[in-house]
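FAQ

Q: What does a record look like?
A: Structure on top, sequence underneath. For example:
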């Protein structure tokens, strides 16, 4: 009826399609719901443009369907796009942002990306705690999600409660304002932070650059933007994974190599084991199967000492593919079976179990493998390393220009801590006393980082000025 009354591209028709799709999802009729949700999204984009909040809502609904259907790789970019639209629409502290962050955090948790899942869920919990009344169902739900994530990464109960208490601790909320007086003296006359970030965002978009940079949580805030923009192990791993997924194997390898260097500069971690595994998989996909086979065989004992069932299963899956490529069919079948056993029955690993089961079925059916790229892996990797160096030089040139803040959407990367205004004032005082150069600024209505002491170094909370204190 709506289609006959409004036509094929009306917002009310999109809402009707969405509502019908939700009913089908509730009835677990996902295959029937998917085309309705996709058409609803298409109509909303046609009627409202690609950056409208209704588009964000449609993206989130479609992503939720994909996630429920065991298709997290298709859901993730939709959740991220919805988050960016809502950030631009509502600002960083809105409850819509908290819902987006929680959705994305649950997806990342289900696919084993626990570090980012913890960060986003913590941020979501902080927003809900500040914006909603105590005991609100949304706050309680996200608190439960956050506890599950912390439990899955191995934190003991007392540490879990400490982390939850830290995330839900009350903080004063600061409205957007002019940069505090002392920092303004250091930086010179500037627009308000919101205006500055909006101007930079327009410029960054026009140049086709990425909108955000990941800040290193293991370093104190730097006095210069250049240091803020140095890539860290996590961000480089994520870049490598994205390139790997797109089939740019050599460029993925270059990113993984730099990620491992960054991890080595900090401390070995479960994240570095995952990067080593993905690095070997990319080598195999590029055609250097022998090297990948050797690396994975050496890596599996180290992964087995960790608590990550996903990596235990994935490493064996990747090694099974190498064995198959090398014609070792019995070894490939054995390794695929070990992969299934390593995954266990955790619902979070269903997509990975399905992938390994498909590999085992293909092995038993003697299906042919797709051909490898007809390239020289060594030469391709060297070209990719050069491309990476060129990108880093361009980033360094950008970082040397103090007209560019670290990110126009820093709120994606920040978590509960003392307000930026307070911390900037304290940092300003400390740097001036030490005779150091001027510091850069961050949005004044946002907290600094999930772990204030890790990002800022030893600045006692008790020494920070209060909201009612003198500037």
């Amino acid at each position: 009826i709506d289609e006959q009354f409004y036509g094929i591209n009306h917002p009310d028709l999109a809402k009707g399609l969405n509502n019908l799709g939700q009913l089908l999802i509730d009835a677990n009729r996902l295959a029937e719901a998917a085309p309705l949700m996709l058409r609803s999204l298409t109509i909303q984009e046609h009627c409202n443009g690609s950056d409208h909040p209704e588009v964000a809502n449609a993206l989130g609904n479609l992503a939720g369907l994909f996630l429920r259907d065991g298709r997290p790789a298709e859901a993730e970019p939709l959740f991220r796009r919805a988050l960016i639209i809502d950030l631009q629409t509502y600002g960083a502290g809105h409850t819509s942002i908290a819902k987006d962050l929680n959705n994305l955090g649950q997806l990342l948790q289900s696919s084993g990306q626990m570090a980012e899942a913890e960060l986003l869920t913590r941020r979501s919990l902080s927003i809900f705690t500040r914006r909603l009344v105590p005991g609100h169902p949304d706050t309680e739900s996200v608190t439960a999600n956050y506890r599950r994530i912390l439990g899955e990464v191995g934190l003991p109960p007392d540490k879990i409660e400490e982390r939850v208490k830290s995330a839900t601790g009350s903080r004063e909320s600061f409205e957007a304002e002019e940069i505090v007086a002392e920092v303004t003296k250091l930086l010179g006359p500037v627009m308000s932070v919101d205006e500055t970030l909006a101007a930079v965002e327009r410029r960054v978009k026009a140049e086709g650059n990425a909108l955000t940079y990941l800040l290193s949580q293991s370093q104190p805030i730097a006095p210069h933007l250049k240091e803020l923009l140095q890539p860290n192990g996590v961000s480089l791993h994520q870049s490598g994974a994205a390139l790997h997924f797109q089939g740019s194997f050599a460029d993925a390898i270059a990113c993984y190599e730099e990620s491992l260097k960054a991890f080595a500069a900090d401390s070995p971690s479960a994240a570095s084991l995952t990067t080593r595994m993905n690095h070997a998989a990319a080598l195999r996909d590029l055609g250097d199967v022998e090297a990948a086979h050797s690396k994975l065989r050496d890596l599996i004992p180290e992964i087995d000492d960790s608590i990550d069932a996903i990596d235990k299963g994935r490493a064996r899956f990747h090694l099974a593919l190498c064995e198959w490529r090398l014609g070792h069919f019995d070894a490939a079948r054995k390794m695929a079976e070990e992969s299934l056993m390593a995954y266990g029955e955790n619902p979070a690993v269903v997509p990975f179990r399905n992938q390994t089961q498909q590999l085992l079925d293909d092995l038993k059916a003697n299906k042919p493998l797709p051909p490898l790229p007809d390239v020289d892996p060594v030469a391709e990797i060297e070209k990719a390393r050069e491309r990476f160096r060129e990108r880093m030089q361009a980033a360094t040139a950008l970082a040397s220009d103090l007209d560019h803040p670290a990110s126009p959407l820093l709120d994606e990367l920040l978590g509960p801590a003392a307000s930026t205004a307070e911390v900037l004032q304290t940092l300003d005082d400390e740097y001036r006393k030490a005779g150091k150069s001027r510091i850069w600024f961050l949005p004044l209505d946002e907290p600094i980082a999930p772990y204030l002491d890790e990002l800022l170094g030893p600045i006692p909370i008790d020494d920070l000025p209060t909201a009612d204190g003198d500037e």
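Q: Is there anything notable about this one?
A: The radius of gyration is 24 Å.
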